[in-house]
Amino acid sequence: MIVSTIASHSSLQILLGAKKEGFKTRLYVSPKRRAFYSSLPIVDDLVVTEDMSAILNDDGIVVPHGSFVAYLGLEAIEKAKAKFFGNRHFLKWETTFELQDRALDRAGIPRVEVVELEEVKSDELYFVRIEGPRGGSGHFIARGSELEERISTLEEPYRIERFIPGVYLYVHFFYSPILERLELLGVDERVLIADGNARWPVKPLPYTISGNRAVALRESLLPKLYDYGTAFVEAMRELEPSGVIGPFALHFAYDGSFRAIGIASRIDGGSNADHWYSELYWGERLSMGRRIARELRLAEEEDRLGEVVT
Amino acid sequence: MIVSTIASHSSLQILLGAKKEGFKTRLYVSPKRRAFYSSLPIVDDLVVTEDMSAILNDDGIVVPHGSFVAYLGLEAIEKAKAKFFGNRHFLKWETTFELQDRALDRAGIPRVEVVELEEVKSDELYFVRIEGPRGGSGHFIARGSELEERISTLEEPYRIERFIPGVYLYVHFFYSPILERLELLGVDERVLIADGNARWPVKPLPYTISGNRAVALRESLLPKLYDYGTAFVEAMRELEPSGVIGPFALHFAYDGSFRAIGIASRIDGGSNADHWYSELYWGERLSMGRRIARELRLAEEEDRLGEVVT
Amino acid sequence: MIVSTIASHSSLQILLGAKKEGFKTRLYVSPKRRAFYSSLPIVDDLVVTEDMSAILNDDGIVVPHGSFVAYLGLEAIEKAKAKFFGNRHFLKWETTFELQDRALDRAGIPRVEVVELEEVKSDELYFVRIEGPRGGSGHFIARGSELEERISTLEEPYRIERFIPGVYLYVHFFYSPILERLELLGVDERVLIADGNARWPVKPLPYTISGNRAVALRESLLPKLYDYGTAFVEAMRELEPSGVIGPFALHFAYDGSFRAIGIASRIDGGSNADHWYSELYWGERLSMGRRIARELRLAEEEDRLGEVVT
User: Fold this and answer.
1) How many angstroms separate the CA atoms of A97 and A156, rounded?
2) What pLDDT shows up at residue C234?
3) Which of A248, A299, B253, B285 falls 20 to 30 Å from A91 in CA-CA distance?
4) Cis peptide bond upstream of A257, omega within 30
5) CA pair distance A19, A170, nearest whole angstrom
């Protein structure tokens, strides 16, 4: 069996994990990124192409990640002949505010407050979020007084949220249909360009993500997050049968209580930050990428591949 | 032999470590946290109870952590029938300013300056610290001019410290009576709600801890910290015979020199952040939890359990 | 074969790595640092001395790190009888602005803009960088209006750079002459005293490094950085034959694009932060220190030691 993906986002851990679980690997890479990926012994079959849609006809198991929808479009993915790890109909749930909110509300997970422009107070802080996963770019923080002018130039769907001063934590889950078990595999925080203000505040800076750091969450916060994860899995089982298969993430602001600010309906880039919680379930360190490959291997061994692939 | 603890703080690494060293594990968990902990294969015996004091009569080796004093009270722990890993009389040393200062002073470790209200200057910054380990909650930073008003509402013992602008580093030690060796096993920094100001300063925020990040300390700083650790172990041997057994932590502000701001007289939650220094001593990665279990195993093998258990 | 170094900077990972690859180890340590280093089982031969120049006549393979030039001087190192891992003539390339710029320019790596005092605008922010590797100390951020006064007191060579608000990322490479392969082994960010302003900005603080944190870089940024690394290796092959052997680092400001702010022409202290990218090349976690030892072992096995030692 061969595990295939596109060279970006979290493909390194996906392919490394696949190799460690004994699979062959195939990677679709654009010519300008070839040098780096071709230097890595984890890639068995490197397909250099400008056209990523070639993967839609791949004959292996395709593992989608956070660049798939941007590269290929939802419709093409849903119609593709290739076999995808996970529920490919789940991928769309992060792409609009409406779907995201519906999922979180069904799960009973508290969300950040959305504010209408009419309600905005001039001296309060707001966070303007652009719709869809964007690696943080485009979002901005602003005082109410400057909000109307700044949103007047936006060309994409957005919404205004009440800004929550506190830390932002991204929680990485894996739901295993084979084991019927939800695993909480890690927590990260984003490294943003805006973190440049930590040493001395200069001016509001872009929220564009440049990387991720692992966070060992205060243990007393984990049970509640695990309950949220469980509720999310149950909600998606109703909303998008057969529900979540494999990785997803819940994104939270934390100022003493958790409020969801988003979801990832596939492997989240924050799982690139190495975390140890997988040892709790497996006695060894598994990246999310390897966890995916482990599920494929378990499914294959039990002749249940159909339950984890769509 | 069975290793027992309460489901909170650092119980995950304690039980994972115990399993890896070949022990059975028992965990006391409140009903509302049951779902998460019962999903983990590291727990052999899950005791679901609202009443954590059940652990005081446990027939295994109880490993105390940072939630024990809050849940059970010092007196109950000191009188408990159960066997505790470590010197149970050491646990109290973090609970009051007076004990903490006495330990640090005896060890010759420089401390943050404590300021009397009369000495406060209106335009300088101070840090008000609430007594006892509290996960950071309640502490606050304030200008001298606002200090009197703000402390007038405090209902708990506190003190005023000169604020040290710089980084705060938490150093995790393990003293092994079996090997007669002090090990420096890791350094972390806290992830606080107040870190929400890193991207853009909004207002002073709570110092409540939400997690921990590992820090690889600049190597040239380690020898001095190791000397402080050694001095602390020697001081405690006199102050609370038989002294420190197992884990403790020293908490420092660093602005070019180190000043202690506190101690943990048990495993510190910051050791939840995975660190590599244990490889220096053991050639493999041991969490603090596993290091505890390793000590138990070494003691058991040499028939010296009495030296690490009280 | 014995691997020797000086007790500072990154000697822990160098010796741990050497032990894991099967070498004997020797460490030169000053008396005041003896307690810590002598507690570590990774040191076979501890040479306690005030005079680090003893290592210049060592009969093993000396692995230089970021403290060597400060302790021993470039000239003494270049003339030393001892065998050094790597190209000892490469060590000087980080020590002056002129060499650093020449290397970066030859490689075509964009650099931070250097500003002449005459061009400074009073209301803009600048970063004053002191020449040579200094662990961050001495550098400062300042408004144009205060710049002339502040630099008037500087006694060391410096330059004025346009301040880039954003994150600062340090990328760790290893060039293997044995495998003819460039490996990108990790990324870190520095933990500075100035990070004390993250929770509440107090005043501009020293940029002195107190530690390092691993960053999992956004994967889409890695190919470009790998290309920069490759270009740097090629440039140094011309500028300082036989070029880079082993570890080096490129230091970047990132605000949406990368601009180099410096280099390390030896193992960089930021590689003390544990990173997982080595698994991509080796299937297991190797520190930079161990990667050096691995190269020595590979060279020895193929009887090619002369290619990695000067």
Assistant:
1) 12
2) 98
3) A299
4) no
5) 27
**Residue whose tokens read 């059970």:** B72
**Residue B171 pairs with which residues in a beta bridge?**
B187, B250
Our CA-based measurement puts residue A4 at a distance from the nearest CA of chain B, in whole angstroms, of 31
Q: Which residues of B touch C28 (CB under 8 A)?
A: none
pLDDT digits (tens, 9 = 90+) for C15-73: 999 999 999 999 999 999 999 999 999 999 999 999 999 999 999 999 999 999 999 99
CA-based nearest residue to B266, from B141, B166, B154, B174: B174
| Residue A103: Cβ-neighbour burial (10 angstroms; 0-12, 13-18, 19+) | buried
**In B, which residues are within 8 Å of A216 by CB distance?**
188, 211-214, 272-274
Interchain pair B165, C191: CB under 8 A: no
What's the CATH architecture for A94-111+166-307?
2-Layer Sandwich (3.30)
- Closest residue to A198, CB basis, from B198, B203, B274: B198
Count of positions (residues) in chain C: 310
* Contact residues for A199 (Cβ-Cβ < 8 A; gap 6+): C141, C192, C194, C195, C197, C198, C205, C207
To which CATH superfamily is domain B94-111+167-307 assigned? Answer: ATP-grasp fold, B domain (3.30.470.20)
Which of C128, C233, C279 best tests the A interface by mutation, with the highest count of A CBs <10 A? C279
Of B37, B188, B196, the CB nearest to A167: B196
Per-residue pLDDT at B136: 85
Distance CA B277, CA B272 (A): 14
Distance CA A60, CA B206 (A): 50
A235-293 tens-digit pLDDT? 999 999 999 999 999 999 999 999 999 999 999 999 999 999 999 999 999 999 999 99
For an interface test with C, the pick among B218, B233, B287 (most C C-beta atoms closer than 10 Å) comes out as B218
CB-based contact A253:A141 (threshold 8 Å): no
Collect all residues of chain C within an 8 Å Cβ-Cβ radius of residue B197. 198-201
pLDDT at residue C236 in the model = 98
Name B201's Cβ contacts closer than 8 Å, sequence gap at least 6: A197, A201, C200, C201
The per-residue pLDDT of chain B, averaged, comes to 97
State how far the alpha carbon of A268 is from the alpha carbons of A13, A14, B208, in Å: 11, 12, 27
Q: What is the pLDDT of residue A136?
A: 85
Positive or negative: CA dihedral C106, C109, C110, C113: negative
DSSP A251-265: EEEESSSEEEEEEES
Q: What angle do CA A228, A233, A236 make, to 5 degrees?
A: 120
Under 8 Å between Cβ of B280 and C40: yes
**By 3-state DSSP, what share of chain B in percent is helix, strand and coil, each rounded to 5?**
40, 25, 35
Whole-number pLDDT of residue B134: 84
pLDDT for res C133: 87
How long is chain A?
310
CATH of A2-84, one of 3.20.20.190, 3.40.50.20, 3.90.1300.10, 3.40.50.2300: 3.40.50.20
B120: confidence class by pLDDT, cuts 50, 70, 90: very high
Strands (DSSP E) contained in chain A are 2-6, 24-29, 45-48, 61-62, 83-84, 114-115, 125-130, 140-143, 158-162, 167-176, 181-192, 209-214, 216-217, 246-254, 258-264
> CA of A213 to nearest chain C CA: how many angstroms apart?
5
The residue ranges of every structural domain in chain A are 2-84, 94-111+166-307, 114-162
pLDDT at residue B133, as a whole number: 87
Average pLDDT over residues B28-39: 98
Residue B167 to residue C39, Cβ atoms within 8 A: no
Question: In B157-257, where do the E strands start and end?
Answer: 158-162, 167-176, 181-192, 209-214, 216-217, 246-254
Q: What angle do CA A14, C259, C11 make, to 5 degrees?
A: 70
